[in-house]
Amino acid sequence: MQDVSTLSLEEATTEHRDLSSRIESLNKAYYQEDAPLVEDAEYDALFKRLKALEEAYPKLVHTDSPTQKVGSAPAKGFGKVTHAVPMLSLDNAFNSDDLQEFESRVRRFLGLPPTEDVAFFAEPKIDGLSASLRYEKGQFVQGATRGDGQVGEDITANLRTLKDLPLQLAGDRAGFPDVFEVRGEVYMSIPDFQDLNKRQAEKSEKVFANPRNAAAGSLRQLDTKITASRNLRLFAYAWGDASDVPGMTQAEVLQQFENWGFSVNPLSKVCGNISEAIDAYKKIEELRSNLDYDIDGVVFKVNRLDWQARLGFVSRSPRWAIAHKFPAEKATTVVQDIEIQVGRTGALTPVARLEPVSVGGVIVSNATLHNEEEIERKDVRIGDTVVIQRAGDVIPQVVEVVLEKRDAEKTVPFDFPKTCPVCGSHAIREINPTTGKEDVVRRCTGGLICEAQVVETLKHFVSRNAFDIDGLGAKQIERFYELGWVRNPVDIFTLEEEDKSRLQKIKNLEGFGTKAVTNLFEAINERRQIDLDRFIYALGIRHIGQGNARLLAKNYLTLESLMAAFAPDQEDPGKTYVDLLNIDGIGGAVADAVKEFFSEDQNRDILARLQGQLSVIPFEAPDDDSPVAGKTVVFTGSLELMTRAEAKARAESLSAKVSGSVSAKTDYLVAGAKAGSKLKKAEDLGVTVLTEQEWLDLISG
Questions:
Q1: Looking at per-residue confidence, does 313 or 625 come out higher?
Q2: How many CA atoms lie within 13 A of 568 on its CB side?
Q3: What's the rounded Cα separation, in Å, for the pair 221 and 226?
Q4: pLDDT computed for residue 688 by the predictor
Q5: Which band of pLDDT confidence, cut at 50, 70 and 90, is reported for residue 360?
Q6: Pairing of strands 632-636, 657-658
Q7: 591 and 461 share one domain
Q8: Cα four-point dihedral sign 388, 392, 393, 399
Q9: Is residue 394 pLDDT above 50, yes or no?
Q10: Which terminus has fewer CB within 10 Å in the chain: N or C?
Q11: Of 125, 325, 459, 631, which is the active-site residue?
């Protein structure tokens, strides 16, 4: 795999997009369907590569990236619970160097001197299903899954069946917090898992791949009797919404959990410094094989809660915690074939079809080869024996070809196609205008005539986070496309009217019927009103995910103003483009994609026709009591009362927009010592200039 530092921005952008799409699919399978498609090590490696790309090319970091969010949307079948405090995921460390770098980041953020130790609370990372348990005055009232981190599923009745979950906290009721959300991991012990699979096999029913799947499937049963029969367990390890926190450190709060009647993992301990933390990891790893439950690493948290509060959060994870994962394993197998998949953006991706092999208890049967340069560099041929590793930059990853097992008469070099295997159009590697080099990704030039791209665009349009039309999923889109009934988004909303004039009716298709068609048309009509951010996301603009769609909606407010900004007859297109770039979080690649999409006549025609079929609801910013909500702030100079990272994080947590440059739209410039050109520009523009203390006084109300 090519080192990220050697990639051009265009190459990195392409790989980032493809990786993001892959991870989103894996998130949905893992969090929503309890049917993970890959082992944790494979997922972690994909995620690590994505983060490496974003660290090397900060412009790729957008709010829609998987690195900025958690999990997948909650599935249907249970009520929804909005978490008062989001249930975030954790960043990963893969070796001691990563752990030491984590400690260094903590030190830099807090501005700690080298002489001051950072104590960490270490605990085994249980391989189960996260749950949030809400207690009011000591009484258990509601339980929920993680879901997408913001909204989970209400599984209160199922959680009540767990013996490790106290329905009433132990101790003096007068001392219980009014509200306290305990968070923990629901798991199934290995002996109970083996017994369950034995019973399932005897009844010719589904057997589970591993204890994690068994626990997740058992906890999300609509029949609580089934959940009760599965002997699920719970380790408490964290908290969410709390009117009062019983302790000054992570260890003190966990001790209170035990006092209240929860099970806390007995291997958890306080490590006085990073060296002790590394030793704790090694000891727990040695004990791993003797435990009667699955763990896949060790979690380390800054022990002091006041430091946790200062460190705060990034979009998807706390700055004060990290998971040090256990290493993965390797296996040897044979490349049976190499196939080409065409993505929604026209990218041709080679996939190695492998002779199935077990790696760490998971059957691996394919591996993404990324691009033709990867195939050439490793000289991977059909028929080769290769080493597969479920760790590293890309997983499953072909580490190397076992050359001594290569049979020259039986192995076949792969000839990467120069035409699209779907539509036959030319497939080219674009020239990067900045570097003058070829893009590593070969793309189909078929555009709207390539079925792979058009169909995938339509699937995206009706997907869960876009229009979310019940009864119109991927299979229906493919079918209607093949019949010529849906060729663009407008056709979806004229489907009912067109069906009246066709000789072949939808109701006569296999799998449909009068009731199904009625429900489909009702579902389509229910989506004739849609929020602006969802509408923008549904369009499938390159680089525009949910986060960036919301940024655009928040800044342009209506579809009309967004279209007007990029109309062919606009007076000052240069200023419009600069205004777009000035939106915090919008980089050059995103700005280019937005400009190209909304200035393209064919796209504007589709948008105009869509406006005749539906109503796009203008964006309304949420109410926020923060005195700086919606304000744009710039920090400059040397800050003395807080670190730059801490200042930015605090401002963003109060719904302020942090920008790196001063403009007429800047509301506040916070000037530290030795402020330079930004201060002068702010004064020239009449921007309010604040000292650090004045800023702190302002945000404290």
A1: 313
A2: 6
A3: 7
A4: 94
A5: low
A6: parallel
A7: no
A8: negative
A9: no
A10: C
A11: 125
Number of domains in the chain: 5
In a domain, 437, yes or no: no
* Nearest residue to 655 (alpha-carbon basis) of 636, 687, 632: 632
- Pair (377, 276) in one structural domain: no
Domain containing 382 equals: 4-68+328-413
Query: What is the pLDDT, as a whole number, of residue 72?
Result: 47
Average pLDDT over residues 405-427: 90
Q: Is residue 442 part of a domain?
A: no
Q: Is the pLDDT of residue 526 over 80?
A: yes
**CA gap 699, 701 in Å, rounded:** 5
69 pLDDT more than 60: no
Measured distance CA(71)–CA(278) in Å, rounded: 28
Rounded to whole angstroms, how far apart are CA atoms 9 and 191? Answer: 50
CB 102 within 8 A of CB 57: no
| 100-104, 337-341, 645-649: the lowest-pLDDT one | 645-649
DSSP 432: P
Report the SS3 class of residue 367. Answer: strand
Integer Cα distance of 474 and 28 in angstroms: 15
Whether residue 667 is found in the same domain as residue 577: no
The full length of the chain comes to: 701
d(CA 212, CA 24): 20
Question: Residues 143, 259: one domain?
Answer: yes
C-alpha to C-alpha distance for 480 and 70, rounded to whole angstroms: 33
Burial 549-584 (b: 16+ CB within 10 A, else e): bbbbbbbbeebeebbebbeeeeeeeeebbebbebbe
The answer on 310 and 263 residing in a single domain is yes
Query: Measured between alpha carbons, how far is 305 from 307 in angstroms, rounded to an integer?
Result: 5
Strands of the 321-325 sheet, one edge to the other: 91-93, 321-325, 295-302, 120-126, 269-271
- Given a contact cutoff of 8 angstroms between Cβ atoms, the answer to whether 136 and 179 are in contact is yes
Q: Provide the pLDDT for residue 397.
A: 76
Give the distance, in angstroms, between the CA of residue 576 and the centroid of all CA atoms in the same chain: 31
Contact 191, 225 (CB under 8 A): no
Which of 359, 390, 413 is the endpoint of a domain? 413
- Residue 505 identity (one-letter amino acid): K
Q: Indicate if the pLDDT at residue 280 is higher than 90.
A: yes
**What would the pLDDT profile of 588-613 be if each residue is shown by its tens digit?**
778 877 887 888 777 788 899 999 99
**Taking the complete model, does pTM exceed 0.90, yes or no?**
no
Residue 30's pLDDT is 64
Task: Please give the Cα distance from 464 to 461 (Å, whole number).
Answer: 9
Cis bond upstream, residue 396 (ω within 30): yes
* pLDDT, tens digit, 9 for 90 and up, residues 433-475: 456 677 788 887 665 467 788 888 888 899 888 999 989 988 8
- The question of whether 48 is a catalytic residue gets the answer no
**What Å distances lie between residue 154 and 30, 32, 77, 142, 637, CA to CA?**
18, 13, 10, 7, 48
Distance, in Å, from the CA atom of 152 to the CA atom of 159, rounded to the nearest integer, reads 14
* CB contact set of 457 (below 8 Å; sequence gap of 6+): 344, 540
Q: Are residues 193 and 304 in the same domain?
A: yes
